[in-house]
């Protein structure tokens, strides 16, 4: 189902993503981080859906459908390096910083910061071309909520 999407996303010079495709790719990245500690729990699922509702103005059903599609895309997507670099090339910087903030919300959704999640978030931050200080500020904003 997502083979063509992944192929387009991972070409050498991907075209900017349409809004719906960008939503799907970024939500798949949220799922990838949530799954990184092998404990993808209900709190993380709910947080991802909440982020989708807040960020994209979706209804509950639309957010659930987007998250379900993102779970499937994430399971079929290539390694994190290629997948994340493709997102970097297709999404403006300010939107990538907002994605880092959303990723921190997912990491902190279950109340613990697993080493696997921290490591993957550091990698993703770097691959998205987001500066460490911007990631740290995003984490602080999330922790302050």
Secondary-structure map:
Layout: H1 3-9, H2 19-35, H3 42-56, H4 60-76, H5 80-90, H6 93-107, H7 115-127, H8 132-144
Helix pairs in contact: 2-3, 2-4, 2-5, 2-6, 3-4, 3-6, 6-7, 6-8
What is the CA-CA span between the terminal residues? 37 Å
User: Low-confidence segments, ≥5 residues, pLDDT <50?
Assistant: none
Give the SSE string: HHHHHHHH
Gyration radius, in Å: 14 Å
InterPro entries: DjlA_N, TerB-like
Protein name: Co-chaperone DjlA N-terminal domain-containing protein
Pfam families: TerB
List keywords for this structure.
single chain; 145 residues; mainly alpha; TerB-like; 8 helices; globular
Overall description:
The protein has 145 residues and is mainly alpha-helical. It has one domain: TerB-like (Orthogonal Bundle). The protein has eight helices and no strands. Helix 3 runs antiparallel to helix 6.
What's the gist of this structure?
It is built from eight helices and no strands. The protein has 145 residues and is mostly helical. The chain is globular and about 35 Å long.
């Amino acid at each position: 189902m997502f083979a063509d999407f992944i192929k387009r996303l991972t070409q050498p010079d991907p075209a900017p993503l349409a809004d719906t495709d960008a939503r799907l790719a970024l939500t798949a990245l949220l799922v990838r981080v949530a799954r990184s500690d092998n404990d993808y729990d209900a709190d993380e699922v709910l947080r991802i859906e909440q982020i989708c509702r807040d960020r994209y103005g979706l209804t509950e059903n639309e957010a659930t459908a987007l998250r379900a599609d993102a779970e499937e895309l994430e399971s079929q997507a290539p390694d994190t390096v290629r997948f994340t670099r493709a997102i970097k090339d297709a999404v403006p910087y300010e939107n990538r910083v907002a994605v880092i903030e959303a990723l921190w919300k997912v990491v902190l959704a279950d109340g613990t910061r697993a080493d696997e999640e921290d490591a993957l978030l550091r990698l993703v931050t770097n691959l998205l071309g987001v500066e460490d200080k911007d990631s740290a500020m995003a984490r602080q904003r999330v922790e302050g909520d």
